């Protein structure tokens, strides 16, 4: 992660420079910035996400690619604190009133970066009708018991039209490599 | 654009369809089977086809009992080719509920292959599913389990396995004619680049919600559906998972590596700077195998080597590097070819000899289909059975993950998991949009 990154989502000079390049009208400049964005870390998450919704499709594409790279770099082996900082920033996006595409992508990426410490907060978004399916799918990737217990608790109080979706996630979490595919779909 | 959801569960569907079927003529007698799941030698096998656009249309038989496609135009065109009054539906589950149907072909986009094959096996159907085998490692495991648990005959549509050039190359290499092979180089032309298209409401003829099926919801864009799904990373995965499945299947046959897997994978590529597609335009991938040690590489762009004694370069194919000689293998699907020295080679008594179709026909794709039909009667494993199909598709699946994560990954071919990389392991399965699940 960029040494200038404060790890709490505050925008650094490096992140500001990245954003300038992502907004550059020259696609080659945007491309180079997108490819090198991974180490920019949590401070780049929110400003990149705002560009994902840009009307300029070239800028939006570069921003989305850069955001993906930041998340995947943060979730690299040994990058635990980076992953957590990126997850906190992504969670803020998912909880915000930003456009659906931005919130949905944040929840998708949380599936790769978040650990069980985030499970309860992501779980609250299961109650948000506009992104609850995306929250459910993102949640499904997060391993460990703490994460599973959030789903279990929510299953009991989920609205009736969403209860089958939660049950599906619980079913999927129980699938084992040696038996998956042998139980008829219900 | 209004966001819709796949709104019915399988149970809801079954309840509803039972009513719908009450007034429907019973098209084909189901009692023709010699015993359940095993047609006798002279019994008629009743086929249905799921996904009848593109390559899926090539599998249609004239007396098909049912056709399924989420695009009404595809259905209309396919129906003209079928006699009688086949069931026409946009929901594959209607076909799986028909007890009289013995076997189905699946020619849908890739994101449906795994889930439909598993559900078809659970419904007691034999399956011919187009390549690539599946989209994720978990889907592949589910397919293998379902095929074996429900004792189904499943052929993956990598017809290169049925081709004479693949057979000749396998006999040549596996009997030591080029010595010990240390490297296999595979190449292919670049992935496509294209424009942005525009988000809009889907055309009325297309059931877009069912087209998406288990995928994360996204707005309709004509540049991202039907044949263009190939250029979306989370749907088609690029040529490496498409024709790569063809040529890599042949490589694994020729190397005798069907029961082995790589121990590492790395991949780089250059995505399109513009346009709505996100697969890399160019791509380099490398897999390392152990015991025996060899490396396999994939390169885009293609046209890497000229074919001996012919004009022009081979668009896509493989080159085998042994310590005594090399061998060029062109393409990998029905249009495959191999150097003359392999074609002229006859294996010695007791040497390795690849499977030979007892009643070969000229057309390799039809030969592949006939192998499946024969196996439906004999209950033998087809030439591109599910274990082989899954073992092949692991290669491009993990290469695409390495590309997305921008790092070299270690792979445990026995546990079928990445080693020491939790994020990569979270990509072994994709959560499905409800109500679809394995």
E-strand count of chain A: 0
Helix and strand element order of chain A: HHHHHHHHHH
Give the termini separation of chain B: 29 Å
What amount of the residues of chain B lies in strands? 15-25%
Shape of chain A: elongated
Describe the structure.
The complex is a heterodimer of chains A (186) and B (438). Chain A is mostly helical. Chain A has helices at 13-22, 27-35, 45-52, 57-74, 80-95, 100-113, 119-124, 132-141, 145-157, 163-173. In chain A, helix 5 packs antiparallel against helix 6 and helix 6 (100-113) packs parallel to helix 8. Chain A is elongated and about 50 Å long. The N and C termini of chain A lie far apart (45 Å). Chain B has 438 residues and is of the alpha/beta class. In chain B, 28% of the residues lie in helices and 17% in strands. In chain B, the strands form two sheets. Chain B has a nine-stranded mixed beta sheet. A six-stranded parallel beta sheet of chain B has the order 3-2-1-4-5-6, with helices on both faces. Chain B contains twelve helices and 15 strands. In chain B, helix 8 packs across helix 11 (386-405). The longest helix of chain B is centred in the C-terminal third of the chain and has 20 residues, at 386-405. At the A-B interface, helix 2, helix 4, helix 6, helix 8 and helix 10 of A face helix 4 and helix 5 of B.
Describe, in short, the structure shown.
By secondary structure, chain A is mainly α.
């Amino acid at each position: 992660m960029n040494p200038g990154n404060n790890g709490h989502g505050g925008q650094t000079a490096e992140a500001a420079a990245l954003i300038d390049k992502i907004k550059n009208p020259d696609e080659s400049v945007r491309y180079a910035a997108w490819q090198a964005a991974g180490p920019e870390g949590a401070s780049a998450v929110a400003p990149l996400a705002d560009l994902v919704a840009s009307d300029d499709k070239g800028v939006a594409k570069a921003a989305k690619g850069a955001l993906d790279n930041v998340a995947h770099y943060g979730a690299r082996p040994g990058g635990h604190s980076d992953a957590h900082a990126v997850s906190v920033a992504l969670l803020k996006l998912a909880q915000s009133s930003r456009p659906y595409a931005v919130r949905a992508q944040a929840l998708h990426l949380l599936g790769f970066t978040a650990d069980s410490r985030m499970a309860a907060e992501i779980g609250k978004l299961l109650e948000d009708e506009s992104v609850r399916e995306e929250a459910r799918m993102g949640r499904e990737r997060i391993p460990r018991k703490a994460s599973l217990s959030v789903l279990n608790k929510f299953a009991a109080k989920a609205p009736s039209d969403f209860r089958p979706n939660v049950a599906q996630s619980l079913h999927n979490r129980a699938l084992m490599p040696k038996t998956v595919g042998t139980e008829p779909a219900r | 654009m209004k966001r819709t959801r796949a709104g019915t569960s399988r149970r809801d569907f079954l309840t509803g369809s039972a009513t719908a079927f009450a007034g429907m003529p019973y098209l084909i007698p189901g009692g023709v089977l010699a015993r359940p799941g095993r047609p006798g030698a002279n019994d008629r096998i009743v086929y249905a086809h799921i996904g009848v656009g593109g390559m899926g249309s090539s599998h249609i038989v004239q007396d098909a009992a049912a056709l399924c496609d989420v695009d009404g135009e595809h259905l209309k065109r396919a129906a003209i080719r079928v006699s009688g009054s086949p069931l026409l539906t946009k929901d594959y589950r209607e076909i799986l509920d028909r007890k009289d149907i013995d076997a189905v072909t699946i020619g849908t986009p890739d994101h449906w292959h795994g889930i439909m094959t598993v559900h078809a096996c659970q419904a007691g159907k034999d399956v011919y599913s187009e390549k690539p085998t599946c989209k994720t490692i978990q889907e592949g495991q589910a397919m293998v389990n379902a095929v074996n648990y429900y004792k189904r005959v499943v052929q993956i549509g990598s017809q290169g396995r049925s081709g004479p050039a693949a057979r000749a190359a396998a006999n040549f290499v596996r009997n030591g004619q080029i010595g010990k092979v240390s490297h296999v180089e595979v190449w292919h032309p670049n992935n496509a680049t294209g424009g942005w298209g525009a988000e809009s409401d889907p055309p009325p003829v297309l059931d877009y919600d069912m087209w998406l099926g288990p995928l994360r919801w996204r707005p309709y864009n004509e540049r991202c559906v039907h044949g263009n799904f190939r250029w979306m990373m989370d749907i088609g995965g690029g040529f490496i998972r498409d024709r790569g499945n063809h040529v890599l299947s042949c490589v694994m046959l020729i190397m005798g590596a069907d029961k082995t897997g790589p121990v590492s994978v790395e991949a780089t590529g250059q995505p399109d700077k513009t346009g709505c597609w996100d697969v890399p335009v160019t791509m380099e991938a490398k897999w390392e195998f152990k015991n025996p040690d060899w490396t396999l590489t994939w390169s885009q762009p293609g046209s890497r080597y000229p074919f001996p004694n012919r004009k022009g370069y081979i668009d896509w194919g493989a080159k085998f590097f042994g310590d005594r000689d090399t061998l060029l293998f062109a393409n990998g699907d029905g249009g495959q070819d191999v150097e003359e020295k392999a074609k002229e080679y006859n294996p010695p008594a007791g040497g390795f000899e690849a499977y030979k179709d007892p009643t070969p026909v000229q057309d390799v794709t039809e030969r592949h289909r006939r192998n499946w039909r024969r196996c439906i009667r004999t209950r033998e494993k087809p030439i591109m059975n599910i274990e082989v199909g899954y073992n092949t598709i692991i290669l491009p699946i993990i290469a695409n993950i390495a590309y997305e994560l921008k790092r070299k990954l270690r792979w445990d071919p026995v546990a079928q998991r990445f080693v020491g990389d939790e994020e990569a392991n979270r990509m072994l399965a994709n959560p499905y949009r409800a109500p679809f699940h394995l």
